[in-house]
Amino acid sequence: MIAMSIPPFPVFIRGGESTFFQGEHHFSRIFSVFDLLYVKKGTLYMQEGDKQFEVGEGQYVILVPGKRHEGYADCTDQTDYFWLHFVIDDNEYEMVEDKELDWSYVYKKEPTFTEVGHYLFHLPQYGEVKRREIVEGQLAALLNIGDAHVPDHYLQQQLQFSEFIIQLQKEAFSIPSATEKVCESAMKFIQENYKQQLSMTVLKESLNFHPDYLTRCMQKTIGISPMQYLSHYRLHHAKRLLAETEYKVSAISREVGMEDVTYFSKLFKKVEGITPLEFRRLVHRK
Distance between CA atoms of 164 and 167, rounded to whole angstroms? Predict the structure, then answer.
């Protein structure tokens, strides 16, 4: 486990989504920052020094600074993954023995009226998340915040990254809160019905929760509202269809549940920075 004192939280640098195709593997490098790799689909075969990690769907590994990182085997299937680069202030962390956790390990010093509290986080270097919808939703929200050159966007990313670190710590406890359970139910419903005409009224009738409560739960857990998550999820599938098919943009818009192709194109450009057709040309050029 990676043990670190908080505050301060680790600082997010940059992140993204990438794909290795069958026969490809991660290149070799020695990095000066932490590199977190989370696999959505397929399997990554990563080595850090003499340690090897087979990272499957819903699993992650955190590679630490100063050691050689490389793929020790080719991917046997298409492998889609998130990557996040971050630093810990003055590299103040320890590698400690894995153990079963609860909140008693976290609380070190309660805050007073004049002094900050201190907490000790223990993040498994290699782990499997139990609430994939929440974790993947947080990662998508973090990477969709927009142009990090804009100061408020960069600060929003830092806040979202801190929420993600807290979620990883909670995953190590394996005890979901009531808020997380509601969020997970809403995300699962959206994933199963995103092609339909969804609204907060539909969510309310299907999940039996007030729209305001649903919104609060999702914003607290993954940082975005149900309708924002619906848009992100639809665009995720739209990008896959643009890359893997020759469907017209209007057909793809309808396929992901958006009848208004003009709105779909505007939303796509707002989030991705390019039009759907420009995205298709860029992917095919790669």
Answer: 5
pLDDT above 70 as % of the chain: 95
Taking the alpha carbons at both ends of the chain, their separation in whole angstroms is 37
Entry pTM: 0.69
Distance of CA 137 to the CA centre of its chain: 6
- The Cα 252–Cα 239 span in angstroms is 9
- Residue (of 259, 18, 243) closest to 267 by Cα position: 259
Q: Determine the residue type at 237.
A: H
At residue 218, φ and ψ (nearest 5 deg) are: -70, -40
- The pLDDT score that the predictor gives to residue 283 is 82
Specify the 3-state DSSP secondary structure of 211.
helix
Residue 120 in contact with residue 5, Cβ under 8 Å? yes
Both tokens of 129, joined, read 């998340």
Whether 139 and 222 have beta carbons less than 8 Å apart is answered as no
Helix, strand, coil percentages for the chain (3-state, nearest 5): 45, 25, 35
Three-state SS at 279:
helix
149 three-state secondary structure: coil
**Dihedral through CA 256, CA 38, CA 26, CA 41, nearest 10?**
-40
